[in-house]
Amino acid sequence: MKYRNKLTIINHWLFFDLYLIKAKPIPHTSKLLFHMDPQQELIREQQKQSWDKFSPGWKKWDSFNMEFLRPMGEAIIANLEIKRDDEVLDIATGTGEPGLTIASLAPNGTVTGTDLSENMLAIALANAQAKGIANYQTVTADVCELPFANQTFNAISCRMGFMFFPDMKLALEEMYRVLKPGGRISTSVWSGPESNNWVTTTMSIIQKHIELPHHIPGSPGMFRCGKPGMLAALFKQAGFKNIREEEIKGDIDYKSFEQYWEIMLDVGAPIVAALSKTDDETKELIKKEVGELFKSRNATGEAKLQYASIVIYAEK
Prior knowledge:
Blueprint: H1 6-10, H2 38-60, H3 62-80, E1 87-91, H4 99-105, E2 110-115, H5 118-130, E3 136-140, E4 153-159, H6 168-178, E5 179-190, H7 197-209, H8 230-237, E6 241-253, H9 257-267, H10 269-275, H11 280-296, E7 304-315
Parallel strand pairs: 1-2, 1-4, 2-3, 4-5
Antiparallel strand pairs: 5-7, 6-7
Helix pairs in contact: 2-5, 2-9, 7-11
């Protein structure tokens, strides 16, 4: 099968993460001029179903994934300069971080975690209870129609969610609306595929053997926001100021190829979807070739792959 470029390959990695309102929204005075079109709403529903379905895998590997994502969370928290009485919104909270850590820094305030997936939010609440964090709450909500009044929050965090929002401009308008004047926001997204071989190690082999659907440029995807300056420009367009960005790079230690493969199958919705389209023989061949590529990137016998992320900060 003929190869396509790596960016096309990796944009099929759609760990969809958005937010669906179940309860009646709190009235607010915003005047949204645009709403998501039917195709974007369909993507949102698919994202919700995907996150709900794979939430057991995220619960299983929560400690591993939170350690993996910790540097980006720490950068977000440092940017936000959390105060003890801050009201904070953690969008795409998933299993709870960095919202839970932020809650521990704002004992006189409240952290509200939002997500599309009720199953993921249930894990987040369980984590809060296990850690004895009482000032953390969750709301099932769509980032493009946040159920909060204008100027509610002092700060907003969003770790690894932006690239999956069907309408990023509308999401930013909503974040801007619910932030108080002078409010701070910080978010992280993945850099380009060339800097994230923890993904390309698997997806490049899958793409070699399985014909993947054509990717529509600009649609939700793993590296949709990976170009430096791209997300910062959207923040500026939405009215934010004092915008800055940095790149964070590091290694992920999977301990072994078998654990890497297990994690990918437990949390990687697009991998599972792609493999479901082929026979057992091809699945075994894909695993074999992924293993060979994994080992070639660890010539000294380690089990590490690389990641890179862009972290954005801005103020209202």
